[in-house]
Amino acid sequence: MAATIETDTAFDALVRRLSRQSVERHFDAFADVDWDAEALQIDPGGARWAAVTLDPLTDTGWYRRQPPEIQARIGLHRIATAMRTGWEFENVLQRGLLAYAFWLPNHRPEFRYLHHEVAEESHHTMMFQEFVDRCGLPVDGLPARMKVTAELLVAPFARIFPPLFFMFVLGGEDPIDYVQRQRLRAGIAHPLVERIVRIHVTEEARHLSFARHYLKRRVPQLSRFRRAELAVGAPLILAAMAQMMLRPSRQIVADYAIPASVLDLAYTYNPEHRAATVESLQKVRRLCEEVGLLTPAYRRLWRVLGLGSGT
């Protein structure tokens, strides 16, 4: 498929529209979430946490054999860990966006929009960490080695090779956006989580739109060598990020002594989980095809990584 190029005029108009939307509809982590409302309080043993939908772990015999209070703790721990990991990812994203904005010339509409996005991500970060602090569980985020890697390698790409950085953005945000939208449609048992997720999904729609349109505009302008780098890097990033976002953390596996066989059954060799992972990346896969990153040779790499049939 031949790459399509988004014009500068169309891109600039899109960015200005996103900035207007950020003014017209934005949220404050504390003004728009009533943290002290009785209905929003977190009870670590509450039955609602055991009803975490769309997690294949809950379909296993091992999970169903756990006492109700352990099922509840696992559900709450999964949500809290996702929020902690989410804000750590967004911290790296903010650093990259600021580094990218730092070198923009005058009169670029991206400057204003990027700072709107940084402000919104800051409120997401505060919102997520407030939930973690109130949940009453010891919650780890990314392993230390991944934090170092993110600081030293990922954020600098926003300056060194921005298209790869924005592919990383989509790799972190698209899978979790897919899961959150699915959970909203299925119904979220706890009103605090439902409120947080609705706020996050609403604002992330703008962030995802900017990243996609940036890549539509920029990738077709890259040299053949740079396009090849991105064509290889994209599926590697997407495969790693999707698994990190959609599977239990090492801490949860260790704390609840989840057997490896159960993880294999729920995730590694579960065709439904594999299909959901592929589906969570369909938008970014279509984007890669649209901008010319999915030639037959690179389709094989996607297939090897379990990201699609390669057709």
What's the helix and strand layout?
Blueprint: H1 8-24, H2 61-64, H3 68-102, H4 109-134, H5 144-154, H6 157-160, H7 162-186, H8 191-218, H9 224-246, H10 250-255, H11 260-268, H12 271-280, H13 282-290, H14 296-304
Helix pairs in contact: 1-4, 1-8, 3-4, 3-5, 3-7, 4-8, 7-8, 7-9
Keywords for this structure?
311 residues, single chain, mainly alpha
| Helix share, percent | 55-70%
Distance between the termini: 12 Å
Count the DSSP helices: 14
User: Based on CA inertia axes, which overall geometry fits?
Assistant: globular
Give the number of DSSP strands.
0
Structural class: mainly alpha
Biggest beta sheet attributes: none
Computed over alpha carbons, the radius of gyration is 20 Å
- Summarize model confidence as the mean pLDDT: 92
Strand content: under 5%
Q: Can you tell me the residue ranges where pLDDT is under 50 for at least 5 consecutive residues?
A: none
